[in-house]
Design a protein that fits this description.
With 110 residues, the chain is an alpha+beta fold. The protein has helices at residues 48-54, 90-109; strands at 5-11, 14-19, 25-34, 39-44, 63-71, 77-85. The protein has a six-stranded antiparallel beta sheet with strand order 1-2-3-4-5-6. The radius of gyration is 15 Å and the shape is globular.
């Protein structure tokens, strides 16, 4: 449901993601998972990987995110993806994550 994902594999708390067009894996580490409250938090293990995507000389200190699912009653839920990252990434990250949320919504609504 996440656009441009070629493959994804788990290794302990690390998720290795290969995006189409990249010759390396982006590695995210699980920081926390709360099933009853429906939240999942993670961080980018190698922030320099994003620098390879957006170009040389760009300062990319990292990315940390929390995905939350909040009930809206019945079979309705509100999904939020709260992201803390460098200013230079906000536009592209917001667009990519919004597309992922739109894909998720379409899949769930069938």
């Amino acid at each position: 449901w996440i656009p441009n994902t070629e493959s994804c594999r788990l290794d302990g708390d690390d998720r290795h993601i290969r995006m189409r067009g990249l010759d390396f894996d982006i590695v995210e580490r699980l920081l926390g998972h709360d099933g009853p409250n429906r939240t999942c938090s993670y961080l980018l293990v190698n922030p320099e990987d994003l620098a390879r995507v957006i170009g040389p000389g760009q300062d990319v200190p990292g990315l940390e995110a929390t995905l939350s699912v909040n009930s809206r009653g019945g079979s309705t839920a509100w999904v939020t993806w709260d992201i803390d990252t460098a200013e230079i990434l906000i536009g592209s990250v917001q667009a990519e994550y919004q597309q992922a949320l739109d894909n998720l919504k379409a899949l769930l609504e069938g």
